[in-house]
Design brief:
The structure is a homotrimer of 339-residue chains. The first copy, chain A, is an alpha/beta fold. In chain A, 14% of the residues lie in helices and 27% in strands. At the A-B interface, strand 20, strand 21 and helix 4 of A face strand 2, helix 3 and helix 4 of B.
């Protein structure tokens, strides 16, 4: 793509044209004339501003095209085409998607080693790779891809264009929406952890509620989302879920929720739209985490959290309060150390 | 089942008969006349009493049969049959088991795509699903079910009626008792984390001790229980183990122990019968957690915990002491915030 | 092996000869005359000295050979041959390796049920077990073993003699060094957790950077190491990585690093050689954990940690400071409790 084509594609403004032909996106310091690279000049997610070394790497970049925020000026490489974008990182993401897609290429068809029950319904252009197993009554909509060694349980439904990497297990009756991506060895719809002590043993409460995952959800590797007891566990549209995430039975997760690595959501938790849960945070169960809540890494909700709150600690409380408590304790410890 | 039949089955007392024919169990608010539902009126596991909304849902329930504690009276739906039970939740669990069992149905036989070594011993009515692998010398007792893509290592033993969901891996020499259930992608008997630093590299200590799991144990998805170094890791009868649980080498877990999601038990920990470990709690290893101990979520034992103790925090201490410490710190932080 | 042969093999000194023929290594209390056992007399990893019971077990041991530190004298079993070793645990590890190796035996060849793409390059004496899938362009060097149901993605490279247990998934383009061991259901090279919020959805940042793992790395069960965004995630030589470990995209882990169970390293973390991260510790991302750092279990780095530091807590600080803070809080809580 030429700089002009890229500017049009990302909705940016060509600050300075160039002759480069761009074939991919990479980091500023690694780019050559066939690459686009991006630089926003803004603090990163952890609040850190770009370092001097990062500004220098920008100045020295060999990129053919630089996607920049308009505020990024000064010492820029003389030969790069420059495109101003409201959100350079987003522009780079869309451009990279344009070049390589979001999943590996696949070919329609059922591999001869796959075991597909005769009663399963298989849509157009579905790709079922080696060693996959599709049980009775399962329904794979058009364009679904099962990479290799994926198991799809009886009567499960997989929506249009969803991509399941090797080793994923989808239990019976689970419904996965369209355009979802599930990474390897994750498990969708295993039994929730429900028992009743009889006086002599833990009697299992059969988990018959199922699991319904909406469209556009991406799930990382080795994560597990349990089916509900009587009614389905639900995951809303466009959620992004990292590796080793555990979601208990009967949870209702809203749309576009972010669950980082090792998050654990105990049973019957409700999470509002757009909440962001940092690494290894979670819920103790039976509470509501409001829409737009931001939970710091390691924090755990043991009671309801209002919409939009920013919380930290376990039990999770106002993040500033938590931070103040830690600071007080550290100060006392330092003082004692000097005494 | 009629109300009378259900009362007999659960050992309850028919408080009020009805004409319903019951085919399944569900939640009070979702039930219709073909459903049984239950309500205990007691606080839930987190200590919360039923809310006004839950009492209202009971009053409005369309259930054909309600399983109630005898103390639940007042505003009850006029058409439901009522059965008094000492433990309505337990009665509902047993009734649900009666209708749907605790695992999906399966058919005996070896799927043609399964690879079963000629030297493996396969009992009566065993079901080995598509893509399973059973190595040399393995022994599957009567009624064992391997759902799909399960690997059973050399000389492993699986007890009568145990059910292994898709993707489970059982290492060589592991012994699993009767009537166990193992959910997808869990790993039984991988090497413990044992090394000795040579001065230039970590020399592996071969892990030859095996793993012995007793009868009636249920294990969730994506959990890993390691084999012992010289002697077997042991899991006692009737334990219930949730998702993403990690149990290190040489651990000895007693009977009916409860390990909630993301619990991690480091090597050589001993846990007494009936202990309950909350979500993401665990042990730092080489200590004893007594019988009947209750560990709060997130707490971690770094030294022995006496039988029956209720502990919290990391290191785990008396739960009240831990709570008091947190309260003091929060109070100081609030005070400072106002200053 | 005779005592003399063992002394030569482990580089120890025969303190007292004996007539035993040794066939394996086991624990002091479980050993008979065909076993070697070891005892260092030193505190274990948690700082605990051997107990009286352990000294008694040594005195009562039926082992044919005892591997001892020269400082271990006094009440020793009269019939055992005694070998002095600078590091008896290390000697025992090497001796056990000599008897049983570090992985189970395997036979070269491709199982008929394995699916190996015609364009894959397969070295000498490679063993590809039942149900394995090897995609186009993959390269398996001499002596690689895929146990059963392993998936190797397109163009992935597996180094000489590496052993992958059942259920492992290696994504496309991943490079694994020589003599690595990967336990069941671990996932190498899944997409990093990279998105950019568009104002209406999380746009995925394609993860094209790959993953490069050096020689001699061992990885436990159910762990996940993500591929980089633009440049590879890197794992250094001889690292040992336990179960349920999560390593985010763009991390650079040095040589011989120890990552215990449930460690989570968020994206773009750099870890120096020889660092040791205790159970469930980790990094919040975008920071550097120095060479030789020791992080206590549960501690999490949110900023750089200098080489050689010993840290604890979250955020991780000097371990003594953290301990002092905890002690102060517990003391206040005890005082309040008595008041």
């Amino acid at each position: 793509m030429t700089p002009t084509e890229i500017a049009a594609f990302v909705g940016g403004t060509l600050r300075r044209d160039g002759s480069a032909q761009i074939g991919f996106v990479t980091a500023v310091h690694a780019a050559n004339e066939t690459h686009a690279a991006w630089f926003s000049g803004k603090p990163d997610l952890t609040g850190r501003k770009p370092s001097d070394a990062q500004w220098q790497a920008l100045a020295d970049s060999g990129a053919g095209v630089l996607l920049l925020h308009e505020s990024v000026t000064g010492n820029l490489p003389p030969n790069a085409a420059l495109i101003d974008c409201a959100n350079p990182g987003l522009a780079a993401a869309k451009l990279a998607q344009r070049f390589v897609g979001v999943v590996p290429p696949s070919q329609p068809g059922v591999h001869p080693s796959a075991i597909v029950d005769a009663s399963a319904q298989i849509g157009q252009d579905v790709s079922i790779g080696p060693g996959c197993v599709v049980e009775a009554g399962a329904h794979l909509d058009d364009g679904v891809v099962l990479q290799s060694r994926v198991s799809v349980g009886a009567n499960a439904k997989l929506g249009k264009g969803s991509y399941l990497y090797s080793g994923v297990v989808v239990y019976h009756d689970v419904e996965l929406g369209a355009a979802c991506v599930v990474h390897s060895n994750s498990v969708l719809g295993a039994d929730g952890f429900g028992y009743s002590w009889s006086g002599s043993r833990h009697e299992k409460v059969p988990q018959t509620g199922g699991l319904v995952i909406a469209d556009g959800v991406e799930i990382g590797a080795c994560s597990a989302i349990d089916r509900g007891t009587f009614e389905p566990t639900q995951i809303g549209m466009g959620c992004i879920i990292d590796n080793h995430v555990q979601i208990g039975h009967n949870c209702q997760i809203g749309a576009f929720v972010v669950l980082c690595g090792q998050v654990a959501i105990a049973g019957s938790t409700v999470i509002g739209d757009g909440a962001i849960l940092g690494g290894r945070s979670g819920s103790g169960g039976h509470c509501r985490i409001g829409a737009g809540v931001q939970m710091a890494g390691l924090s755990v909700a043991f009671s309801d959290i209002p919409d939009g709150a920013i919380v930290a600690g376990a039990p999770a409380v106002d993040a500033k309060l938590d931070m103040r408590g830690r600071a007080i304790l550290r100060k006392m410890a330092r003082k004692r150390g000097r005494a």
